[in-house]
Amino acid sequence: ITVGALREAAAGERRVAITPEVARKLHGKGVRVLLEHGAGEAAGFPDQSYAEATFADAQQVLAQADLLACVLPPVDAVFEQMREGATVVGQLRPHGAATRIAALGRRKLTAFALELLPRTTRAQAMDVLSSQAAVAGYRAMLIAAEACPKFFPMLTTAAGTIRPSRVLVIGAGVAGLQAIATARRLGAQTEGYDVRPETREQIESLGAKFLDLGVSAAGTGGYARELSVEERAAQQQALADHLKVVDVIVTTAAVPGRPAPKILTAAMVGGMKPGALIVDLAAEGGGNCELTRPGERVEHAGVTILGPLNLPAGAPLHASEMYARNVYNFTELLLRDGAIAPDFSDELVARTCLSHGGEPRFQG
Ligand code: NAD
């Protein structure tokens, strides 16, 4: 069989779904790897770094691939150029993707959206949300350090002592914990906050302080649930007081399949120190701050709010290495006796499937 990947087409996207390492592993399983010319170039993998892949133009890749791996969903017209009955694996943004699922149907494609993997131990090696969130959290804190008018670490110099910056990370999932770890490495006085009580121990194990606002909202599957109106008001009141002493906030709060929870109001931002900075990692999903504008820089009462988009693409080499390994581990589940033969009794296969032979399998 042939596994293919294209050069990602989205603006600013620099990752690639198949790295030289993964091409080699697929080749070792008897799989032919066919990539579009320059597919890995922006990630730091020029064509010649792939010892075990063949290169062709996009049309040929699509015409020959039995399985197409992607980082972001391609435009629907790409599916129309694939061979009938082929398979697609990648981040396919399944929520609200009815037209995409219909396009898959027209070529009787089978598609797996890796965002839908359950957060179980067995799925961890394929978990693209985790691998890419780790990159996003790291990058968000570097962007914060760069844009902050203060030093992160404490310095004792002949010109006097510099006090460390006070950094707060709101939402301590995979991205938030990586942001906390990065702030600690840069020497900031770091706190983390989350509505899931089990994050206290995780935050403290990174040497940061857990900010206890007295609101707990654990949901199902290890995720948070949406807060009630009363809980949200209590959270905001407790947080507003605390924000007066904070220099940098990185927000990462999310509830799966829902818009990003609005945690920071304009009034709360107005109460912060002049020169304070907010990096809203939830910008793509609408933002955790009322004032965030996706992809833009907003100034409000002396406070800067950044809403960077697609942070994993900013560290494309390692982001691609992790992503490609996730794709490889999932693809292994689909292969049987040299063919693609998904076993739908496996929950990892069943829960990620958007379309099987063109029949829709996901409503969301
Ligand atoms: P996510 O991106 O869905 O959310 C980010 C964080 O925001 C979460 O920690 C969530 O609790 C928090 N949050 C939501 N609403 C909030 C609010 N109003 N105020 C403050 N914080 C809020 O989460 P994620 O990073 O994808 O991780 C979700 C969970 O899955 C975590 O428990 C993580 O450890 C777990 N996980 C488990 C595995 C595994 O065992 N295989 C793998 C990855 C993640």
UniProtKB/TrEMBL annotation:
Its EC number is 7.1.1.1. One of its GO terms (cellular component) is plasma membrane. The keyword Cell cycle does not apply. The keyword ATP-binding does not apply. It catalyses: NAD(+) + NADPH + H(+)(in) = NADH + NADP(+) + H(+)(out). Pfam families: AlaDh_PNT_C (PF01262), AlaDh_PNT_N (PF05222). It comes from the Bacteria. Residues 4-136 form the Alanine dehydrogenase/pyridine nucleotide transhydrogenase N-terminal domain. Keywords: NAD, NADP, Nucleotide-binding, Translocase. GO terms for molecular function: NADP binding; proton-translocating NAD(P)+ transhydrogenase activity. Residues 145-307 form the Alanine dehydrogenase/pyridine nucleotide transhydrogenase NAD(H)-binding domain. One of its GO terms (biological process) is NADPH regeneration. CDD domains: Rubrum_tdh. The transhydrogenation between NADH and NADP is coupled to respiration and ATP hydrolysis and functions as a proton pump across the membrane. This is proton-translocating NAD(P)(+) transhydrogenase.
